[in-house]
């Protein structure tokens, strides 16, 4: 596979793009990274590669584009089987992993946006919803090192990029995620010990400043 061409179209600030980056790093895949401007004009390569949604991330493997972050991570795991499998071999455990990743995909980012884009009762409701989901995830982790047990895997890849946004959430929402969900934060810190994660996730302060910038663009005070 040494002659393969792998290109990732993404942004440093996208938790969805970070999933793909972490998966590639876990597998030890050499790839070319192309930063997309999330506020500016989308590149022709992005528009041609993802004409349906016109958004990042996109993985281009030997000229063929693959879109949607969880779909891309599954593709990476299927194509590069040899190192650091992200899915368990057991079909039931694999189905469970897909279930939790799907829940993360459908719920967490939208709730995060409500926390840093609203105030008062709306923000309090969003905070409550986020903590409820985080506690569900804590129940799934239980006393395991990772969601899949001893091995870092698909659900970890799906969730850990949001850890870089915890500081922003806590600052906007005036609450402590660690105080509410200590097991989840301990899991995140454990993930950060992995080079694939630590080299991919942005500094929390930088992520917070990005959220401020987005709010300013949207006219949110």
Oligomer type: single chain
**Binned strand content:** 5-15%
Q: For the terminal residues, how far apart are their CA atoms?
A: 50 Å
Number of domains: 2
Shape estimate: globular
Mean pLDDT metric: 95
Low-confidence stretches: none
How many strands in all? Answer: 4
Order of helical and strand elements:
EHEHEEHHHHHHHHH
Can you walk through the features of this model?
By secondary structure, the protein is of the alpha+beta class. The chain has 2 domains: about 5-80, Glutaredoxin (3-Layer(aba) Sandwich); about 90-220, Up-down Bundle (Glutathione S-transferase Yfyf (Class Pi), Chain A, domain 2), CATH 1.20.1050.10. Helices cover about 55% and strands about 10% of the residues. The protein has 11 helices and 4 strands. A 4-stranded mixed sheet has the order 2-1-3-4, covered by helices on one side. Strand 3 (about 60) and strand 4 (about 65) form a beta hairpin. Helix 1 packs parallel to helix 3, helix 4 (about 90-115) packs antiparallel against helix 5 and helix 7 packs across helix 11 (about 205-220). It is globular. The protein starts with 5 loop residues before the first strand and ends with a helix. The mean pLDDT is about 95.
Sequence-ordered SSE layout with sheet pairings:
Elements: E1 6-10, H1 15-27, E2 32-35, H2 44-49, E3 58-61, E4 64-67, H3 69-79, H4 91-117, H5 120-141, H6 154-159, H7 166-173, H8 177-180, H9 182-192, H10 195-198, H11 204-218
Parallel strand pairs: 1-2
Antiparallel strand pairs: 1-3, 3-4
Helix pairs in contact: 1-3, 4-5, 7-11
């Amino acid at each position: 596979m040494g002659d393969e061409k792998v290109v990732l179209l993404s942004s440093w600030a996208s938790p969805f793009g970070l999933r793909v980056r972490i998966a590639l790093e876990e597998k030890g895949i050499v790839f070319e990274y192309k930063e997309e401007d999330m506020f500016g004009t989308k590149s022709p390569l992005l528009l041609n590669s993802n004409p349906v949604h016109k958004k990042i991330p996109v993985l281009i493997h030997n000229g063929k584009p693959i879109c949607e972050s969880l779909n891309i991570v599954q593709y990476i795991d299927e194509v590069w089987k040899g190192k650091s499998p992200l899915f368990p071999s057991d079909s039931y455990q694999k189905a469970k992993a897909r279930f939790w990743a799907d829940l993360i995909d459908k719920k967490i980012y939208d709730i995060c946006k409500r926390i840093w884009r609203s105030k008062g009762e709306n923000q309090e409701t969003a905070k409550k919803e986020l903590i409820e989901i985080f506690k569900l995830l804590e129940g799934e982790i239980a006393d395991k090192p990772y969601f899949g047990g001893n091995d870092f895997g698909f659900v970890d890849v799906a969730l850990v990029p949001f850890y870089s946004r915890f500081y922003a959430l806590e600052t906007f929402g005036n609450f402590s995620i660690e105080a509410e969900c200590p097991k989840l934060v301990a899991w995140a810190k454990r993930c950060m010990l992995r080079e694939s994660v630590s080299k991919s996730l942005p500094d929390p302060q930088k992520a917070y400043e990005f959220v401020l910038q987005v709010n300013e663009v949207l006219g949110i005070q």
